[in-house]
């Protein structure tokens, strides 16, 4: 059998087991245990409905029986492309029950991203809503069924077309015989539990293999670090497919602690505040770009957030000033979260002094997380010096899925993952994120791989060369600026032309540049690479008032 990715060496795995980090339980076993130990407690609230742990378990059994009836089984990969709803959570656990592996797509993803996910994972099924935010997912799914040979099933949340290959989620529940005792899929805790999409720095985003052992520990350790217990009510406001929302502590960590998860269809304060008030939400997670809306709404209607104890903020750098204002303005504890789908999660602790909560991005959640900070030659920097963050640990991957060449570049020979983030470390162990060396734009927490977009820009007939560069932005933290060398014979394309071009090529809308600047040529570094720093500096000089 060809290995899809490198795992942990046996000695490390043994140490993680001995320390109790890896508990040896699959997500399906967890769910069965919760349903047995706390059947009547509220597990999930979504779309105005409520399920206890026992009811959730029953729903999951029904769905799992239907999935088996469809021919899905252990080890199969299934692309999950649902917006925030109860069915996301139920289907996620139903896939765990049959030993299949969800592959997370983000709601904003379009044909280009979905095709890539299906191809790399070899997915056999694809789960979609009918429509969401005015986008027609059925047409996309039909296209995938035709073009992707591995894909044989589309499962639809809503009305499914009466065509070959489509099944409605609702029908799935009646398909199998849920009364026969659920079969054990034979899955073990070291098997793959989920494939997450990396933020990416390359032309083709990479898939991150997470095992039951490591992902469950991720959820437990983050739950402990934010004091989650059975009184915790977590609001899932960011997309459920985001690692932050699913497992930091998110849905899975809240379940581990015995709490209740409330699902919000979107993260706007108009949607979230009434849910927080009605269901007594105690903790939620946001990206910095969403904060201004929440702060404004909170000034108008401060009673809504009375019960909120912890506000996690992460995914992109939170400015120290904003953190302080937030801390003062809202009567709750801010928890900064610096995490990555690849593994390592750092958080400020609830009892940290204000200067650490507001001035750092936290410290690792596990005592077994190993951190190195290195210079450009890979040597450790002096204490408190700045450098690239390397990490290794019980829930950080040892290699991407089916990406041997990329793995050779992203990991040291002894298994440290090179994050591409520039950090420094305080004596307390807290990290401050100071920048990034990876070729990526972090637009309000959404990651854009510059090379992926540049490749699509070059396919435009009027563009001869392109560089996508991150520039500071008031609203998003960073915005994407496309510097374009255009064909002198034709008019340079506008921002809207470029957005349409990328949309036609099937790219998610958030990857379209915020600004397009025609230039005569792109400056090069001595090594012949595009000098993005020079481009950014030139642009800042040319636009700043004298
Ligand atoms: C989270 O995960 P990803 O995989 O979308 O992005 C990871 C990257 C990090 O390498 C870093 O560049 C950036 O996002 N990042 C931050 C940050 N949190 C993430 N940069 C500065 N400050 C922060 N607080 O973004 C993610 C996953 C789990 C929990 C939280 C965030």
What is the secondary structure topology, with strand pairs?
Elements: H1 10-18, H2 27-37, E1 42-46, E2 49-52, H3 53-69, E3 77-80, H4 86-97, E4 101-104, H5 111-121, E5 125-129, E6 131-132, E7 135-136, H6 137-147, E8 153-157, E9 166-168, H7 169-175, E10 192-197, E11 207-211, H8 212-225, E12 233-236, H9 243-247, H10 250-257, E13 260-263, H11 269-279, E14 283-286, H12 291-300, E15 310-314, H13 320-329, E16 333-340, E17 343-347, H14 354-359, E18 363-364, E19 370-374, E20 387-392, H15 404-410, E21 417-425, E22 431-436, E23 440-443, E24 446-449, H16 450-458, E25 463-473, E26 477-486, H17 495-504, E27 515-518, H18 532-543
Bound molecules: 5'-O-[(R)-(benzoyloxy)(hydroxy)phosphoryl]adenosine.
In short:
The protein is an alpha/beta fold and 546 residues long.
Question: What does the model show?
Answer:
The chain is of the alpha/beta class and 546 residues long. It has 3 domains: 27-187, Rossmann fold; 212-436, ANL, N-terminal domain (Rossmann fold); 440-543, ANL, C-terminal domain (GMP Synthetase, Chain A, domain 3, 2-Layer Sandwich), CATH 3.30.300. The protein is built from 18 helices and 27 strands. The strands form 7 sheets. Strands 2-1-13-12-14-15-16-17-18 form a 9-stranded mixed sheet, with helices on both faces. A 5-stranded parallel sheet has the order 4-3-5-8-9, sandwiched between helices. Strands 19-20-21-22 form a 4-stranded antiparallel sheet, with no helix packed on it. Helix 2 (27-37) packs across helix 4. It is globular, with a radius of gyration of 23 Å. The mean pLDDT is 96. Bound molecules: 5'-O-[(R)-(benzoyloxy)(hydroxy)phosphoryl]adenosine. 5'-O-[(R)-(benzoyloxy)(hydroxy)phosphoryl]adenosine is lined by residues 199, 243-244, 248, 314-317, 336-341, 345, 361, 419, 421, 433, 436, 442, 447. 5'-O-[(R)-(benzoyloxy)(hydroxy)phosphoryl]adenosine binds next to helix 9, strand 16, strand 21 and strand 22.
């Amino acid at each position: 059998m060809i290995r899809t990715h490198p795992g942990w060496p046996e000695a490390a795995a043994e140490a993680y087991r001995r320390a109790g980090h890896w508990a040896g339980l699959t997500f399906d076993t967890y769910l069965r245990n919760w349903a047995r130990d706390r059947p009547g407690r509220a597990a999930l609230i979504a779309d105005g409905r409520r399920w206890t742990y026992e009811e959730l378990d029953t729903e999951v059994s029904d769905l799992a029986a239907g999935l088996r009836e469809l021919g899905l089984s252990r080890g199969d990969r299934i692309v999950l492309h649902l917006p925030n709803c109860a069915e996301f959570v139920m289907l996620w656990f139903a896939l765990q029950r049959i030993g299949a592996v969800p592959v997370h797509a983000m709601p904003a993803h379009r044909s280009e991203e979905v095709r890539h996910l299906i191809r790399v994972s070899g997915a056999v099924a694809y789960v979609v809503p009918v429509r969401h935010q005015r986008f027609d997912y059925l047409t996309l799914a039909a296209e995938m069924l035709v073009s992707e040979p591995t894909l044989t099933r589309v499962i639809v949340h809503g009305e499914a077309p009466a065509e070959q290959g489509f099944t409605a989620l609702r029908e799935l529940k009646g398909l199998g015989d849920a009364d026969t005792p659920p079969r054990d899929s034979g899955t073990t805790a070291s098997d793959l539990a989920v494939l997450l999409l990396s933020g990416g720095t390359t032309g083709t985003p990479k898939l991150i293999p997470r095992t039951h052992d490591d992902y469950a520990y991720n959820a437990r350790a983050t739950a402990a670090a934010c004091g989650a217990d059975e009184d915790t009510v977590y609001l899932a406001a960011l997309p459920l497919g985001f690692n932050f929302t699913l497992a930091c502590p998110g849905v899975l960590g809240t379940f581990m602690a015995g709490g209740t998860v409330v699902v919000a269809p979107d993260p706007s304060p108009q949607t979230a505040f009434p849910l927080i008030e009605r269901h007594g939400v105690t903790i939620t997670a946001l990206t910095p770009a969403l904060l201004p809306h929440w702060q404004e709404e909170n000034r108008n209607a401060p009673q809504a957030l009375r019960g909120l104890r912890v506000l996690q903020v992460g995914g992109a750098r939170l400015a120290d000033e904003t953190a302080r204002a937030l801390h003062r303005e809202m009567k709750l504890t801010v928890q900064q979260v610096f995490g990555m789908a690849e593994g390592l999660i750092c958080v400020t602790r609830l009892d940290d002094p204000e200067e650490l909560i507001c001035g750092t991005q936290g410290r690792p959640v596990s005592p077994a997380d190993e951190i190195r900070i290195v210079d450009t030659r890979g040597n450790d920097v002096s204490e408190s010096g700045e450098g690239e963050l390397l990490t290794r640990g019980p829930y950080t991957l040892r290699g991407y899925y089916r990406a041997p060449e990329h793995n050779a570049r992203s990991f040291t020979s002894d298994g440290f993952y090179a994050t591409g983030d520039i950090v420094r470390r305080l004596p307390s162990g807290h990290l401050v994120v100071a920048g990034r060396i990876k070729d990526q734009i972090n637009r309000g927490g959404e990651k854009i791989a510059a090379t992926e977009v540049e490749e699509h820009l070059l396919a435009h007939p009027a563009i001869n060369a392109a560089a996508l560069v991150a520039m500071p932005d008031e609203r998003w933290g960073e915005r994407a600026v496309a510097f374009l060398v255009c064909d002198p014979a034709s008019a340079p394309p506008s921002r809207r032309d470029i957005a349409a071009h990328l949309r036609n090529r099937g790219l998610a809308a958030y990857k379209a540049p915020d600004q397009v600047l025609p230039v005569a040529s792109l400056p090069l570094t001595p090594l012949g690479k595009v000098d993005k720093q020079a481009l950014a500096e030139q642009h800042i000089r040319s636009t700043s008032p004298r």
